[in-house]
């Protein structure tokens, strides 16, 4: 009884999630795609590290942190650009994007220095 | 109204009329002038020792910082970053570039370069001496902006004033105290201000700024661990109290990732942010935040709560399981190192005494007495709870932060005297809120007329308006008189605070420690400059590759001023090496000479206070040498040096004590010395007894130099006898 209901629960969950997500605007979906790509790249690097070993550690860290960092910054951009967020109502999206670009610039400069 | 009389000097009156400013401009003028005065005050109150003695570096640790800054300005950044110092910790050497926090040196070198660019040809020592007061002035500005962020401009101004003269901060930032804390407290407050600003505005730019502030703090001081644990704790508290918002997510994530990446550029910190137990709280909160906001987003998307509950259950169990497994694996396999001794002794104060005698021996690491709190904080000690009350009345993200900062830093200040410094900005800010809110309420009472609340001050907070409304129903004159009396009381207290702070700065915190002063017989000032005399003698009369053995307290000063190689110094990174020196000092001369020959020692330096009554000399530190030496070499046993558990140097002292190397070197030829009128020769003024062994003969060492007041004594190790 519990198994069957949980299975159809899961199915209903996925369906409602998919329908709700389809309603989001296009620019937000692009940002989500970028976040997914960054996380995927990070996962590939972690798998590679598991196979090959973690020397030199600073290169591994800089690679993974750059992916995680840019994913996190993209999520912050998404939050600031999303029209549904009341807190960022009077933040112009150009300003949000400029902040995003600046933070990414700093992130990648430091990452290049750390790459070794 | 009568007609205006025609005045003779019309142009002057027009000029005066044109200066009449609007209220807002007047307020701005008052604020800016107060801040300028506070800036100057913070700088000049720290200059006592420069005026009394001369512009020199104080104490022990600043000499190492000075030496490295000198190296940096002479050789450039790359040589500094990759410097291997072979002049300390002979024969091991020290990797300086990888074992120091470069923020202070780079800051001073930068100021030096800027001044030279502007054609002010100052010596680097002057820049080093005045760096700490300069940054103390900057801290007052940051305190103003922080107070403005938390409460309002009034609280900001009071905070700036309080922190400008607070003794807890002055103690480590006088002119000449060229130490990491002088710059680090500025970086700490600046980082906290930027982070609170980021949480309040939710802007990525402010978070980036706070990441840079954190980077500066990491480069400046090891106490950055406080920031990287307080901020996650604050985020956790906000999550638990339900004050989470999108701004918090943006602020913390940007600051954590960028801050961590920037912090790992400092070689001394290295990979600790992902490997050390002290930094795991930040990472844990980072992942928790991702899970939290992911769940919040899903909840927002799903309209059906039942489905969401199911989803919630699955996700939370998965996340908790994964997190627990990862943490467990990390700690068990030793990949995540446990808390280091230095920080663990903060959580468990009894740990250091049992396990790590070097940490326990430092006087700054002892628990704080109430007198120290009163001495360093004065009225702020009872204004702090009052400020906490006001913060709780008007809770916001910013006030929650300052409450947490205050409470955690006060706990740590209670554990270790040195950490009063970290608590000082929090105490000043919270007390400023109390002072500002109280004065505001009282002046609202004063300024309210019979007409009621309409004429109440527009600057009053809502609570004060309510209170004034209630109080106005009662008899007016008593309220006004009471308010005036209370205001006078408040100003009296603040003036006493200012007097106390100036007195404390002048008497207690402005001594250079390397130059001693005393009152002579006729009240005239007597200066003992023995330390520098001895180091300069070393510099000029010994071969350049001579090696000097002394207790680790003096290592930095010997390398910086004497320019000679030392065996151990204040860095204390190698306990066995220090224990070897301790063993040599506490053995008989024959055993000690073997140890000294094995270390290639040419000169031995001891500090002796028997002639002047100077109590921080090596005989008083001797028991620590025995303990540390005995901790590594069981041949040194502490009970051998004590008589009935008592530490004595007179006739009744233990025979091992009377014949050990340290005793012989300190009291050589002291038996003939008349130190005080009416006392026998060989009377030790620091211990207050006549020494036991007056007829000391040295076999393997000979006296090389004794300073004019016998404070520093240098002995030369004789080469082995010829074998005919």
From TrEMBL, chain A:
The keyword Transmembrane applies. Keywords: Apoptosis, Endoplasmic reticulum, Membrane, Transmembrane, Transmembrane helix. Its main location: endoplasmic reticulum. The chain crosses the membrane at residues 33-51, 57-77, 97-115. Pathway: Protein modification; protein glycosylation. Pfam families: DAD. It is found in: Endoplasmic reticulum membrane. Signal peptide: none annotated. It is a multi-pass membrane protein. Belongs to the DAD/OST2 family. Component of the oligosaccharyltransferase (OST) complex. Subunit of the oligosaccharyl transferase (OST) complex that catalyzes the initial transfer of a defined glycan (Glc(3)Man(9)GlcNAc(2) in eukaryotes) from the lipid carrier dolichol-pyrophosphate to an asparagine residue within an Asn-X-Ser/Thr consensus motif in nascent polypeptide chains, the first step in protein N-glycosylation. N-glycosylation occurs cotranslationally and the complex associates with the Sec61 complex at the channel-forming translocon complex that mediates protein translocation across the endoplasmic reticulum (ER). All subunits are required for a maximal enzyme activity. This is Dolichyl-diphosphooligosaccharide--protein glycosyltransferase subunit DAD1.
UniProtKB/TrEMBL annotation, chain B:
Residues 547-605 form the STT3/PglB/AglB core domain. The chain crosses the membrane at residues 28-48, 95-115, 127-147, 153-171, 183-208, 214-237, 249-268, 280-298, 310-336, 373-391, 398-414. Keywords: Glycosyltransferase, Magnesium, Manganese, Membrane, Metal-binding, Transferase, Transmembrane, Transmembrane helix. It is found in: Endomembrane system. Its EC number is 2.4.99.18. Pfam families: STT3, STT3-PglB_core. Its cofactor is Mn(2+); Mg(2+). Pathway: Protein modification; protein glycosylation. It catalyses: a di-trans,poly-cis-dolichyl diphosphooligosaccharide + L-asparaginyl-[protein] = N(4)-(oligosaccharide-(1->4)-N-acetyl-beta-D-glucosaminyl-(1->4)-N-acetyl-beta-D-glucosaminyl)-L-asparaginyl-[protein] + a di-trans,poly-cis-dolichyl diphosphate + H(+). The keyword Ligase does not apply. It is a multi-pass membrane protein. Residues 32-430 form the Oligosaccharyl transferase STT3 N-terminal domain. It is an enzyme of class 2 (transferase). Belongs to the STT3 family. This is dolichyl-diphosphooligosaccharide--protein glycotransferase. It comes from Hibiscus sabdariffa (roselle).
């Amino acid at each position: 009884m519990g198994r069957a209901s949980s299975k159809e629960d899961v199915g209903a969950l996925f369906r409602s999630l998919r329908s709700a997500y389809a309603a989001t605007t296009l620019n937000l979906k692009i940002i989500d795609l970028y976040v997914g790509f960054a996380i995927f790249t990070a996962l590939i690097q972690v798998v590679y590290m598991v196979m090959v070993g973690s020397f030199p550690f600073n290169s591994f860290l800089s690679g993974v942190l750059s992916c995680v960092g840019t994913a996190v910054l993209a999520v912050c951009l998404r939050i600031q650009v999303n029209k549904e967020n009341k807190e960022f109502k009077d933040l112009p999206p150009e300003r949000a994007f400029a902040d995003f670009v600046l933070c990414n610039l700093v992130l990648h400069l430091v990452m290049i220095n750390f790459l070794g | 109204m009568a007609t205006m009389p025609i005045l003779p000097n019309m142009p002057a009156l027009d000029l005066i009329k044109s200066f009449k400013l609007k209220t807002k401009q007047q307020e701005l003028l008052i604020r800016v002038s107060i801040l300028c005065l506070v800036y100057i005050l913070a700088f000049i109150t720290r200059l006592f020792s420069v005026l009394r003695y001369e512009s020199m570096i104080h104490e022990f640790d600043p000499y190492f910082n000075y030496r490295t800054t000198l190296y940096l300005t002479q050789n450039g950044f790359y040589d500094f970053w990759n410097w291997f110092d072979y002049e300390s910790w002979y024969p091991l050497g020290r990797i300086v570039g990888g074992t120091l926090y470069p923020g202070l040196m780079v800051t001073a070198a930068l100021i030096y370069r800027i001044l030279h660019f502007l054609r002010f040809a100052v010596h680097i020592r002057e820049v080093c001496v005045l760096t700490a007061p300069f940054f103390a002035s900057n801290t007052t500005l940051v305190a103003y902006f922080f107070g403005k962020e938390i409460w309002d401009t009034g609280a900001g101004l009071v905070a700036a004033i309080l922190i400008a003269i607070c003794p807890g901060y002055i103690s480590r930032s006088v002119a000449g105290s060229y130490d990491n804390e002088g710059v680090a407290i500025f970086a700490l407050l600046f980082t906290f201000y930027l982070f609170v600003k980021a949480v309040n505005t939710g802007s990525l730019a402010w978070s980036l700024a706070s990441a840079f502030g954190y980077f500066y703090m990491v480069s400046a001081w090891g106490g950055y661990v406080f920031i990287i644990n307080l901020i996650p704790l604050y985020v956790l508290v906000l999550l638990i109290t339900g004050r989470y918002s999108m701004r918090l997510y943006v602020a913390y994530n940007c600051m954590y990732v960028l801050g961590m990446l920037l912090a790992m550029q400092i070689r001394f910190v290295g990979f600790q942010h992902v490997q050390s137990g002290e930094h795991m709280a930040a990472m844990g909160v980072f992942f928790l935040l991702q899970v939290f906001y992911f769940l919040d987003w899903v909840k927002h998307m799903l309209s059906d709560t039942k489905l969401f509950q199911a989803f919630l259950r699955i996700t939370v169990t998965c996340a908790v399981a994964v997190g627990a497994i990862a943490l467990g694996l990390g700690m068990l396999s030793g990949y995540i190192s446990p808390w280091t001794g230095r920080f663990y002794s903060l959580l468990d104060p009894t740990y250091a005494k049992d396990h790590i005698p070097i940490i326990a021996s430092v006087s700054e690491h002892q628990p704080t007495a109430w007198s120290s709190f009163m001495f360093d904080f004065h009225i702020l000690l009872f204004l702090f709870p009052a400020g906490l009350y006001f913060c709780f009345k008007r809770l916001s993200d910013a006030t929650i932060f300052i409450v947490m900062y205050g409470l955690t830093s006060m706990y740590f200040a209670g554990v270790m005297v040195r950490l009063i410094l970290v608590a000082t900005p929090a105490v000043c800010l919270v007390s400023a809120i109390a002072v500002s809110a109280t004065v505001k309420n009282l002046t609202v009472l004063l300024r309210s007329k019979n007409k009621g609340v309409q004429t109440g001050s527009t600057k009053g907070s809502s609570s004060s308006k309510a209170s004034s409304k209630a109080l106005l129903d009662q008899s007016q004159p008593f309220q006004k008189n009471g308010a005036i009396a209370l205001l006078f009381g408040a100003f009296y207290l603040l003036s006493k605070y200012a007097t106390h702070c100036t007195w404390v700065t002048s008497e207690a915190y402005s001594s250079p420690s390397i130059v001693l002063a005393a009152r002579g017989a006729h009240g005239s000032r007597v200066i003992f400059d023995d330390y520098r005399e001895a180091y300069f003698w070393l510099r000029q009369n010994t071969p350049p590759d001579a090696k000097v053995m002394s207790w680790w307290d003096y290592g930095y000063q010997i390398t910086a001023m004497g320019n000679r190689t030392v065996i151990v110094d204040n860095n204390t990174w190698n306990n066995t090496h220090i224990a070897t020196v301790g063993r040599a000092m506490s053995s008989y001369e024959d055993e000690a000479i073997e140890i000294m020959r094995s270390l290639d020692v040419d000169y031995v330096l001891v500090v002796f206070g028997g002639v002047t009554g100077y109590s921080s000399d090596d005989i008083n530190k001797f028991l620590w040498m025995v303990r540390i030496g005995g901790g590594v070499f069981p041949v040194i046993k502490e009970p051998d040096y004590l008589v009935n558990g008592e530490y004595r140097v007179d006739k009744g002292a233990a025979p091992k004590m009377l014949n050990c190397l340290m005793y012989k070197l300190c009291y050589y030829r002291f038996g003939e010395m008349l130190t005080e009128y009416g006392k026998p020769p060989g009377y030790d003024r620091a211990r207050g007894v006549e020494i036991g062994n007056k007829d000391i003969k040295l076999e393997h060492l000979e006296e090389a130099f004794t300073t004019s007041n016998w404070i520093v004594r240098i002995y030369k190790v004789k080469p082995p006898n010829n074998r005919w």
